[in-house]
Amino acid sequence: MKYIYIVLSVLLLLCLAPFPYGYYMLVRFVAMTVFAVSAYHYYGKGQHTFTIVFGALALLFQPFVKIVLGRTMWNIVDVLVALWLLSLILMEKKIMKDD
């Protein structure tokens, strides 16, 4: 999952640049899919906090019912989520090293 999180983080950070609307819809669909799969993954591991967080992110990024936050707010959300995903990779790497 680490490489998928890195790719998604890059896609989210690229949302800061002016792209056609289709790019943002593609990112939302990819993000929703990754977050839903991650929620399922963490649910299977019994980590309910991450299940809820990833489930909420899947709902936020879903492309079917548009959530209107405005360009500035979406940019902030994209950057925060990208940074959180990257920090999650580092946390899991540290946890694996400690075991």
- Please outline the major beta sheet: none
Ranges where pLDDT stays below 50 over 5 or more residues in a row are: none
Morphology call:
globular
Q: What is the helix/strand order? A: HHHH
Bin the helical content.
over 70%
| Structure annotation, total helices | 4
Mean pLDDT: 91
- Computed structural class: mainly alpha
Q: Report how far apart the termini are.
A: 19 Å
Q: What fraction strand? A: under 5%
Compute the number of strand runs: 0
Query: Which radius of gyration do the C-alpha atoms yield?
Result: 14 Å
Question: Can you offer a commentary on this structure?
Answer:
It is globular and about 40 Å long. It has helices spanning 2-14, 21-44, 48-61, 71-98. Helix 1 (2-14) packs antiparallel against helix 4 and helix 2 (21-44) packs antiparallel against helix 3 (48-61). The longest helix has 28 residues, at 71-98. The mean pLDDT is 91. By secondary structure, it is mainly α.
Keywords:
99 residues; mainly alpha; 4 helices; 80% helix; 0% strand
List the helices and strands and how they pair.
Layout lengths: L1 H13 L6 H24 L3 H14 L9 H28 L1
Could you give a quick summary of the protein structure above?
With 99 residues, this protein is mostly helical. Helices cover 80% and strands 0% of the residues.
